[in-house]
């Protein structure tokens, strides 16, 4: 059984793609790194996917889906960060009402960083195939007030990234992915 965390590695024509979506790739990598460094071993596999070709029609995500869809019942949740890694407020979530209740309970663990909100739907080109077929999905919600200042521009460089805010996003991603991966049962569909 798999809990999938992800971001994508494709900048648009200009800039470096540090925020869109290097930040999402980084916090996904960092979540698994933190769990490993803490010596935690969840019941389910935590899998990192760094998608490619999102801006070119999601071709990397479609290929991955085609290669793994026969095991769809083993995917517990798919998580994607693709709206910057600014100060997090919570998660967008797509799934059953019972799964949403569980995710809301998990999010209470993030009260110390004030990132407990659960929004109505998860967004993410790269996880849309899975959610369409009933796999619960989650997307990072962060303060996107400055997102379009840099999105697909020459300004999308590492200087946009705030290490403290990225650490908060990584903390949220780590807590959610680990707790779901270590629960007794998979999220209800």
UniProtKB/TrEMBL annotation:
Domain of life according to the entry: Eukaryota
InterPro entries: CPQ (IPR039866), Peptidase_M28 (IPR007484)
Keyword ATP-binding attached: no
The UniProt record lists the keyword Metal-binding: yes
Coiled coil feature spans: none
Any one GO MF annotation of this record: metal ion binding
GO CC annotations on file: endoplasmic reticulum; extracellular space; Golgi apparatus; lysosome
Keywords for the protein's UniProt record, in alphabetical order: Carboxypeptidase, Endoplasmic reticulum, Glycoprotein, Golgi apparatus, Hydrolase, Lysosome, Metal-binding, Metalloprotease, Protease, Secreted, Signal, Zinc, Zymogen
Main subcellular localisation: endoplasmic reticulum
Localization, UniProt: Endoplasmic reticulum; Golgi apparatus; Lysosome; Secreted
GO biological process: peptide catabolic process; proteolysis; thyroid hormone generation
Transmembrane annotation, as ranges: none
Domain Peptidase M28 residue range list: 1-173
Subunit structure as annotated in this protein's UniProt entry: Homodimer. The monomeric form is inactive while the homodimer is active.
UniProt record similarity statement: Belongs to the peptidase M28 family.
PANTHER family on file: CARBOXYPEPTIDASE Q (PTHR12053:SF3), PROTEASE FAMILY M28 PLASMA GLUTAMATE CARBOXYPEPTIDASE-RELATED (PTHR12053)
Full protein name: Carboxypeptidase Q
Naturally occurring in which organism (per UniProt): Leucopsar rothschildi (Bali myna)
Gene behind the chain: Cpq
């Amino acid at each position: 059984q798999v809990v999938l965390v992800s971001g994508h590695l494709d900048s648009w024509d200009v800039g470096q793609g540090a925020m869109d979506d290097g930040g999402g790739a980084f916090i996904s990598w960092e979540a698994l790194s933190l769990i490993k460094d803490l010596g935690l071993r969840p019941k389910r596999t935590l899998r990192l996917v760094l998608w490619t070709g999102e801006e070119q029609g999601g071709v990397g995500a479609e290929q991955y889906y085609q290669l793994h869809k026969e095991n769809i019942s083993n995917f517990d949740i798919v998580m994607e960060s693709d709206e910057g890694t600014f100060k997090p407020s919570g998660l967008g979530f797509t799934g059953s009402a019972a799964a949403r209740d569980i995710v809301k309970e998990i999010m209470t663990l993030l009260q110390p960083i004030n990132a407990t909100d659960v929004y109505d739907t998860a967004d993410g080109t790269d996880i849309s195939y899975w959610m369409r077929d009933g796999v619960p999905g989650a997307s990072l919600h962060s303060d996107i007030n400055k997102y379009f200042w840099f999105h697909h521009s020459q300004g999308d460089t590492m200087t946009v990234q705030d290490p403290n805010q990225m650490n908060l996003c990584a903390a949220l991603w780590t807590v959610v992915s680990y707790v779901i991966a270590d629960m007794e049962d998979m999220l209800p569909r």
